[in-house]
TrEMBL record:
It holds the Pfam family ACT. The lineage of its organism: Archaea, Nitrososphaerota, Candidatus Caldarchaeales, Candidatus Caldarchaeaceae, Candidatus Caldarchaeum. Keywords: Amino-acid biosynthesis, Aromatic amino acid biosynthesis, Lyase, Phenylalanine biosynthesis. This is prephenate dehydratase. Pathway: Amino-acid biosynthesis; L-phenylalanine biosynthesis; phenylpyruvate from prephenate: step 1/1. Its EC number is 4.2.1.51.
Length: 226
């Protein structure tokens, strides 16, 4: 399971880059309410904390709270890994931003709960696999494509969805890193790649693109946002 989008901080670009270079398929979608905690060694108090470690998305989601503490921040690969690192190194002047579950797993102390700056903080995850998901009538599909660098190219490409009655739920651009000012477009839309109107749209899209990759079709998340 990999994070692709947060309701506060936006897209997780590391995941998009992974999809470009990997053959894994998106087979499911999960939306989770994010509740961050400040976590330290069991005998450490809040006043001792000078540095906070975590994934950049987690640090950004708690920016206001961390600034109020007057601490420095250090970026790490993931949230739970930060808790593990502090425990293994015995860092008394450090804390991590992670979940309550991470504190339980590593036997660490929660100094503060709910430290995210915004209450309605959700992250969308994609479940990945080496195999395609089975058909579901309530599906979304994720793709990547690029177009020729000329006027109307993106307009024509997106028109394939409009002409076939397909609703786009997200579009995001990302530099190709091959030539300046050329981009990959990551698109999520309603429908399954095996449905006829989706097949037709994708066939049209091919004629307007220089590259296209279907990441997968998967059941839409049913989580209610509250």
């Amino acid at each position: 399971m990999v994070p692709v989008e947060n309701s506060i901080e936006g897209s997780v670009f590391e995941t998009y880059d992974m999809f470009l270079s990997s053959s894994v398929k998106a087979v499911g979608e999960i939306i989770l309410r994010i509740r961050h905690c400040l976590i330290a060694l069991p005998d450490v108090s809040l006043s001792e904390v000078e540095t906070v470690y975590s994934h950049p998305q987690a640090l950004a989601q708690c920016r206001g709270y961390l600034q109020s503490l007057g601490v420095s921040v250090e970026v790490t690969y993931d949230t739970a890994g930060s808790v593990k690192m502090i425990k293994e190194r015995g860092l008394r002047n450090a804390a991590a931003v992670a979940s309550e579950r991470a504190a339980e797993i590593y036997g660490m102390k929660i100094l503060a709960k709910g430290i995210e700056d915004y209450g309605h903080n959700y992250t969308r995850f994609l479940v990945i696999s080496v195999k395609e998901a089975q058909y579901s009538p309530s599906s979304k599909t994720s793709i990547i494509f690029s177009t020729a660098h000329k006027p109307g190219a993106l307009y024509n490409a997106l028109g394939a969805f409009a002409r076939n009655g397909i609703n786009l739920t997200k579009i995001e651009s990302r530099p190709t890193r091959q030539r300046p000012w050329e981009y990959y477009f990551f698109v999520d839309f309603e429908g399954h790649q095996e449905e006829e109107h989706v097949k037709k749209a994708l066939a049209e899209l091919v004629s307007y693109t220089s590259f296209i990759k279907i990441l997968g079709s998967y059941p839409r998340a049913s989580t209610e946002l509250s």
